[in-house]
Write a structure and sequence with these properties.
Blueprint: H1 21-32, E1 40-44, E2 49-53, H2 55-69, E3 82-83, H3 85-92, H4 96-104, E4 111-113, E5 116-120, H5 121-143
Antiparallel strand pairs: 1-2, 3-5, 4-5
Length: about 160
């Protein structure tokens, strides 16, 4: 049975590892990484209860722990989530005014709820991939010569 009272995770605050949690997260991710392709049965020591985690949840847990081990904040956002412009800008690492310009220029899909703009998380991630690809291409173009340099012939002396 699936609960219908799932809270929207996009409004949750990012989780930052506390002091001393990075080594624990590193060790946990290392040990759990061997189980990402199969469901994992774990036993809760406090009450001897056994829980089975789906392989996909184990993979998410390992990825989360890796980020925490690196001292990074993490936040779980369902793909169907709608984000505010500020949340979307924060996830992209850009300013809100820059994001609004992208919306108004038609580079990123959104819908209006009253006077507020909402962006689907999946659309934001598609835009991010395009944005990153464009940025990488620009860096590659800047690193490579724009045109081949041709030698200029020596001036010919006239007699």
């Amino acid at each position: 049975m699936v609960a219908n009272n799932i809270s929207p995770l996009s409004t949750a605050e990012p989780v930052m590892p506390r002091d001393g949690e990075q080594p624990l997260a590193r060790e946990s991710s290392r040990r759990l990484s061997h189980f990402v392709k199969h469901n994992l049965r774990i036993r809760v020591a406090d009450n001897d209860e056994t829980i089975t985690l789906p392989a996909s949840a184990v993979r998410l847990l390992v990825d989360t722990l890796k980020h925490m081990a690196a001292g990074q904040s993490v936040m779980l956002v369902p793909i169907q989530s709608e984000l505010t412009t500020q949340e979307a800008a924060d996830l992209l690492g850009v300013s809100r005014p820059f994001l609004i310009k992208q919306l108004l220029d038609g580079r990123l899909a959104y819908r209006k709820v009253g006077t507020h703009r909402r962006i689907l998380f999946k659309d934001l991630m598609a835009y991010k991939q395009e944005f990153e690809a464009g940025r990488m291409k620009a860096m590659d173009d800047a690193a490579s010569p724009a045109t081949a340099v041709t030698s200029v012939p020596e001036p010919v002396a006239t007699y």
